[in-house]
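Annotated sample (chain length 298).
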Amino acid sequence: MAVFDANDQIRERVAGELGAASVSSVEALVGRAYIHAALVVSPAPYHEDHALAAVRAGKDVFVEKPIATSLDGADRVIAAAREAGVRLQVGFQRRYDAPYAEARKIVASGTLGTALFYRGINRDREAPTGAPGSLATNDILTESAIHDLDGARWMMADEVAGVRASLATIGDAAPAPNVAMVELRFMRGAIAHVEAMRGARYGYDIRSEIMCERGAVFVGGFAQTILTVMRGGERREGLYPGFLERYADAYLAEMRDFVAGVPERRPPAVSGEDGRTALAIALAAGRAAVADAEVALE
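Output written by the structure step:
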């Protein structure tokens, strides 16, 4: 194994923890003959360049979402992987989370009838800091809401026909919008509503509901009490401080699946095209928020 990070201290620490070589550049990492696959978990603006470097060196690539910052960038990564004949997987760990995987299995079985409506709540306890405008307007869509945008498409097993959205900044001054509301209209008529929020304070709150013709499936949530009050700084059973704690097992399953697929040469569970579609939905939501109207995917 080998590790690269632009921060020397982080690179040395992680390399030491993993018993891996510490290298000074992406090129030095992917240039090593004994490296068969690369994990691209750098900040989003570097995903495309780092993924392309690995693909062109003949390595299988796992790239965290978003696959790139633009659809043209996503297309370049997908085309390069196809030309090189390497596996390209995009990181959407919810697909590996046991409750979500079981929910999809139930919905796909048809025992509850056709899926009609998906509702997703994605609330981060913490919020980015910085001067207003120092973060991209669409950041909450491409970094947070994108999990449910992919998740809704995956759960409903359908493609998105139209997108409506609104973005807002609430509470203290924020570097970019910290609330997103996105509505998806699917080809077969189903609807999804996705809420993303940063700075919820009371915890990392992830919930999904899939309403079907003859029942519903719920992932996450609370007991049906008359009133529930949650305050910042208080611990509550069933809530996690962040995504690493909530999805620890899912991340591990995701990595095991990707690595096992390297010698087996099987198609990845989440393809580059899946990553591109999720990005296309997120960017369409950004355009819909500006237009205050439904828009189609590009």
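Annotation: Residues 95 and 101 are 6 Å apart (CA to CA).
Annotation: The mean pLDDT is 94.
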